[in-house]
Design goal:
16% helix, alpha+beta, 6-stranded mixed β-sheet, 5-stranded antiparallel β-sheet, Immunoglobulin-like, 11 strands
C-alpha cells in the first residue's frame, strides 16, 4: 500500500513538472526546401542549454525547455552556427526557421 502511494505521489509531481515545461518546435528550410535529416537545433534559455534536437526526414525539430521567456535557437548547418532569438511560453510555440546564405555566411530567420 505504501509503495503504491509513493508511486502515485511521484507520478503527480513528475506530471506537474512536465506541465510547466514549454516546447519550441517547427521546420527548418533553406531555399524553399527542407534541410537534411540530422541538422542540430540547440535551445539556450537564460544560463541553461538544452540537448540538441535533430531534424527528422521532414525537416522538423522539437525541443522541450523548462523556462519561459527569451531563448536562443542555434542551428549547426554546413559547419556554421546561425542563431535566432525566440520566446518560450507555458504552451508550445511554433518557430519555422528559414536559413539564408549571403556571401557564404548563413543566417536564420522566422518564416
Amino acid at each position: 500500500m505504501r509503495k503504491r502511494a509513493s508511486s502515485l505521489v511521484l507520478s503527480i509531481i513528475l506530471g506537474a513538472t512536465a506541465a510547466h515545461a514549454g516546447e519550441i518546435y517547427g521546420t527548418v528550410t533553406e531555399g524553399g526546401k527542407l534541410v537534411a535529416e540530422g541538422t542540430a537545433v540547440v535551445a539556450k534559455c537564460g544560463d541553461k542549454a538544452y540537448p540538441a534536437a535533430k531534424t527528422d526526414k521532414t525537416g522538423t525539430y522539437h525541443v522541450t525547455v523548462a523556462e519561459k521567456g527569451k531563448c536562443t535557437l542555434t542551428l549547426t548547418y554546413k559547419g556554421q552556427s546561425p542563431a535566432l532569438e525566440v520566446a518560450s511560453y507555458d504552451q508550445g510555440v511554433q518557430v519555422d526557421l528559414v536559413l539564408e546564405a549571403k556571401d557564404g555566411k548563413y543566417t536564420a530567420r522566422r518564416k
